[in-house]
Amino acid sequence: MAAWLDSFLQVVVDQRASDLHLHAGKPPIVRLDGDLVPLPFRELGDAETRRFVLQVLDAEQRARLDRDQQLDFLHVLPGVGRFRANAFVQREGMSAVFRVIPERLPTLDELMLPGVLRTICNHQNGLVLVTGPTGSGKTTTLAAMIHEINRTSARHIITLEDPVEFVHEPASGIVTQREVGTDVATFAGGLRSALRESPDVLMVGELRDVETVSLALQAAETGVLVLGTLHTNSAAKAVDRIVDAVPDAVRDQARGVMSVMLRGVVAQHLCKRATGEGRVAALEVLLNSHAVANMIREGKTHQIEGHLQSASNERTGMQSLDHCLFRFVRDGLVEADEALRKSNDPDILRERLLDIAREDD
Q1: pLDDT computed for residue 224 by the predictor
Q2: Which end of the chain, N or C, is less surrounded by CB atoms within 10 Å?
Q3: How far apart, in whole angstroms, are the C-alpha atoms of residue 282 and residue 341?
């Protein structure tokens, strides 16, 4: 059984795929450039899938899986790679998804991320949000930002992750990585502890509940640079999600804190490259400004998207998603159809792309 699982994971790495899916009732499936591709193998039964999963778990993890019917864990296959994994029970039986974690830390340049992210990394305090749908590369972008901070400044970086994915060795400063469920019970508990550990930078794997959000805002107020992730499709929705996460009684206070402490929001989507090989992140970048702060403070976050469209340029460093997609198509990095699928306003983007075609004619 171990040989089969190892072989499947080797295929994922060799094909530069992102995930391996093992689902009872289906053959093994890999996710390649966003598409699900079945491997030439028989359908897996519940018992077989369960054996695949249990063989890579220790006794404590097996007990947690049996108790909770789901489990997040890290699997390391020597000579092949590291994998973030989630095992769970569904109607057909046991299932699991293994996501590849690249062994080498990515850089901002390698990921083709805009230079303004370096400016964001240089902030000494405040809140930075990296947002996007599941599988959009948020963890990779955060890893590149932490790598940049670690490489260029002498600061104490604390990460809270579930599980720890990219491993950061201390460079100019100190890096402390803690895994939720192993090194600390919860994100909120880890954040509370981190505030007593002289942090300069805090990276929170997911701002998932009221207590975690409240502690993250508190940390930003006390002079720490806090980086966290959310599952939203746009920068404006990320701001709403943070404000809406706190109780009604303190929501106005949260808006006030956000209006002052927010440094930037990076909302991203992965697009297939025009070459057909790999994907590239299309980014929406919102930076705080006097206008943005007023919108947050006054509860007018619905105006942020329009402001972002009008303020997108190299001088401000801000860019809307459609601004980024337009540039990708213009430069031949992404096909027009792919850009339109990811666009927030495909009709307007289509018109802009048609203008280019007319000019070329």
Answers
A1: 97
A2: C
A3: 12
How much of the chain is in helix, strand and coil states, percent to nearest 5? Answer: 40, 25, 35
Hey, how many other C-beta atoms are within 10 angstroms of the C-beta on 78?
Answer: 7
pLDDT along the chain (361 residues), means of 10: 79 93 95 92 93 92 94 89 93 94 90 95 97 91 96 96 90 94 89 94 90 92 95 91 90 94 96 92 96 95 90 87 94 95 92 75 55
116-354 maps to CATH 3.20.20.70 = no
Same fold, 2-101 and 116-354: no
pLDDT at res. 325: 96
Residue 262 near residue 296 (C-beta atoms within 8 A): yes
Domain ranges of the chain: 2-101, 116-354
Q: In angstroms, how far is the first alpha carbon of the chain from the final one?
A: 59
Nearest to 180 by CA among 90, 71, 262: 71
Nearest to 243 by CA among 300, 186, 308, 159: 300
Residue appearing with tokens 């992404």: 334
What is the predicted pLDDT for the residue at 134?
A: 86
E strand map for the chain: 19-23, 29-32, 35-38, 70-77, 81-90, 93-101, 126-131, 156-161, 174-179, 201-204, 225-230, 262-272, 279-287
